[in-house]
Amino acid sequence: MALRSDWSGELCPIRRSLDVLGDPWVLLIVRDVLHGPRRFDTLRENLGISEAVLSRRLASMIEAGLLERVEQPSESGGALRGYGATEAAVELLPALQHLAAWGERHTPLPEGGAHMALIHLGCGGETESAEQCTACGARLSAEELVWDRPWREVSPPFAPSGTIS
User: Fold this and answer.
1) How many structural domains comprise the chain?
2) Long-range contacts of 56-63 (CB under 8 A, 24+ apart)
3) 67-118 per-position pLDDT tens digit
4) The dihedral of CA 19, 25, 28, 30: what is its sign?
């Protein structure tokens, strides 16, 4: 991954976490794969990342237990290969939501930008938490949430498995 020291053997859990998650591409890949399994080309296009960088990040994320390779039948009868979120990646959803909220509060919104919202599919309300809906109080799972990113179409629910796109 990044060119720095190996922190995997450190006692500090923050250092060990950063050893896996410290590269910004890793969190952006997790964000996209949480919407359901993604194919390599779709990730490359959505993220604007080079093939070489994406290939290295995906390999390291599989090794770290964040992603898994998945195959699903295609309409043409063959199999589509992609990358799916593991439970470890799904558990990052609250942290990603906190990062998004922090970014909205503490970084300037570029001209033409709009508020990104986490929507609970059950009640249709915006929630400030990925763990418990602040609109209706229901306990949430990744499958019950979508990010409304106004600069893109509304994303499908987060899920450790689903249709590859």
Assistant:
1) 1
2) 56/1, 57/1, 57/23, 57/25, 57/26, 57/29, 58/29, 58/83, 60/1, 60/26, 61/26, 61/29, 61/30
3) 999 987 777 877 889 999 999 999 999 999 889 889 988 999 888 888 888 8
4) negative
Contact (Cβ atoms closer than 8 angstroms) between residue 127 and residue 135: yes
What six digits make up the tokens of 88?
């470890």
Contacts of residue 93, Cβ cutoff 8 Å, sequence gap at least 6: 34, 130, 142, 145, 158
| 4: in domain | no
Domain that holds residue 90: 13-148
Would you say residue 163 has pLDDT above 50? no
pTM for this structure? Answer: 0.81
Q: Between vectors from CA 27 to CA 26 and to CA 32, what angle results, nearest 5°?
A: 100
